[in-house]
Specification:
Number of strands: 9
Oligomer: single chain
Number of helices: 2
Largest sheet: 9 strands, antiparallel
Helix content: 10-25%
Amino acid sequence: MSLFALISLAVSPTVQDRAVPYTAEVYRPPVVRPFEPPSNFGRVTAEGDGGGDPRRQPIVAPVVVEAYSRSYEHAPSTADTAYDQGVNNAEAAMDARMGPLDGLWRLIDAEGRPILQLSLSDRGPSRPLEGAWRKLDARGALGPIDASERTDAGLGMRLGDAQLTLSPGSQGWTGTLTEAGRSRSVTLIR
């Protein structure tokens, strides 16, 4: 996810002022695998549909609009519906395992001006928060989140030379961004 986060933040021309460190974690397949149909998928005849050929015949001549009685699209087959449902269930199960900070965020100052864009990978409270950041100024510097720490009071992140401290509240995540010895109040929004 860290590599994806860096790529997603690097879509506009930016200046990178240091090498990107890589995490020591080796890639492992996700806990929830994508939908993988069984070996007999699509060859099992659904109950009540035992007669006739389930495949559509090839179109050998132009079809005029008047030949359609209802819809221009054919109804999805049982196999199509089962596949779509399996993919949706796998995605929902993976999303349910992710923490509340997973996704794209913007950091704004007290006046509502955007400061940073963050792409975070939150795999739950027992795992470290990973991701990348990009400044939303003319220079557009970017980099990975160097370190993160969760506490009962909130969250702390080191973003290059800056330190971001956030705590959850009624209006979302608020805190301070300290860079070059100067602190300012910030809010993390979607």
